[in-house]
Design brief:
UDP-N-acetylmuramoyl-L-alanine:D-glutamate ligase; alpha/beta; 13 helices; five-stranded mixed sheet; 14 strands; 366 residues; 23% strand
């Protein structure tokens, strides 16, 4: 816990020697509105537990209903922003990481900017004049034991609003592109494919031309189903592809891999055509409490996760984001793949024992 009890990280001596600005991400900055609800709430809004969707008109009233009728927590969110924040918290190096996205000049936007800066992240948001800062309803419904996996079940409904208004022209502004040139590692959650795939491609092409690392997350099944064209334009630039078991299975089906075996799927993802042939693609598939699969160079390795008691699982919202944050924190230190996975498991294990993507004090990872 921080000295003032705020739940924010303490400012202490940096834990590691990584350069300023080494990690950069672009994504959809959202403010999470998180509450524990019942099954009737999910049924009312036609939601599935452990799913992630974009808000339709029928979902818009749920945001106010959560605020009016439930005990809510407001947490800075958005997949890429979560990952960048976790990586910064783990390494505890001011301005090690940078983030670009679009918000509004409103109270929620002020909260996001302040929280990110408290975690030592350099943020440069594009401000939209028409849409409010984006929000994400996090409907938590307790334990889910589907498919033999125990987790805090939750349904995410994102109202992108201003987050949907990011433009490539913001990325290429001289002061922002200078941050791109400084960075060595780029990360984008797949959700940004629905917003500014041209901006993602600009980062990816820069990474290829300068032999830097570009990584992306499959993020949600609907992206592989309905945004496969932009997804498949970006994937050839990826040095690391992340996803969970459900996302990988849907991706494999949409790409006609002809198999439901996750190890085979991981191998096929890693073997997809690649723009930068100076390093192989690494496909990383998480499976909840089951071992993480890592495919590279025609081989699959399994890495057991950290054991956890069922009663200690509070909320898996953002566990995947935290996993990637831990991975990138070590990648920024040029650590081995094994060490990157070890830290990824640490971060995911930490987050699932908390409500939302919240971290306290200085990270204890060594």
């Amino acid at each position: 816990m921080s000295a003032n009890g705020s739940g924010e990280p303490e400012t202490k001596k940096a834990k590691c020697n990584v350069p300023e600005g080494v990690l950069l991400g672009i994504g959809n900055p959202l403010l999470d509105i998180s509450a524990t609800v019942d099954e009737a709430f999910l049924k009312k809004y036609e939601l599935d537990a452990n799913n992630q969707i974009l808000a339709e008109d029928k979902h818009k009233p749920m945001f106010q209903e959560l605020v009016d009728n439930y005990k809510v927590d407001y947490i800075p969110g958005g997949a890429t922003q979560n990952t960048i924040r976790v990586a910064s918290w783990i390494n505890n190096v001011p301005k090690m990481a940078s983030f670009f996205g679009c918000i509004a000049k409103d109270n929620f936007g002020d909260i996001l900017k302040t929280k990110m800066e408290e975690f030592g992240v350099h943020v440069d948001y594009r401000y939209d004049e028409k849409e409010p800062t984006g929000t994400c309803a996090v409907a938590v419904t307790g334990k889910d034991r589907a498919k033999g996996v125990v987790r805090g079940a939750r349904s995410l409904v994102a109202n992108l609003a201003a987050a949907n208004c990011y433009k490539k022209d913001h990325l290429v502004q001289p002061k922002n592109w200078a941050m791109v040139e400084k960075a060595a590692i780029f990360y984008c959650a797949g959700f940004h494919l629905t917003v500014a795939p041209d901006a993602m491609l600009a980062l990816a092409e820069h990474a290829k031309e300068n032999n830097k690392i570009f990584s992306m997350n499959l993020s949600a099944p609907f992206l592989s189903q309905f945004f496969k064209d932009p997804q498949m334009k970006v994937l050839p630039y990826c040095d690391y592809v992340f996803g969970n078991e459900t996302e990988a299975a849907v991706f494999a089906k949409e790409q006609n891999f002809g198999t439901e075996d996750l190890k085979e799927i991981a191998l096929k993802i890693a073997a997809l055509p690649k723009e930068n042939d100076k390093r192989p693609c690494v496909a990383i598939i998480t499976q909840g409490e089951k071992a993480t699969l890592v495919a590279q160079g025609g081989k699959v390795h399994e890495f057991p996760v950290i054991p956890i008691k069922d009663d200690d699982v509070v909320d898996t919202n953002g566990a995947g984001d935290a996993f990637v944050g831990g991975f990138l924190a070590q990648l920024a230190q040029d650590k081995s793949l094994e060490e990157c996975i070890r830290c990824a498991h640490f971060a995911a294990n930490y987050i699932i024992q908390r409500n939302g993507i919240t971290m306290e004090g200085t990270c204890s990872y060594e």
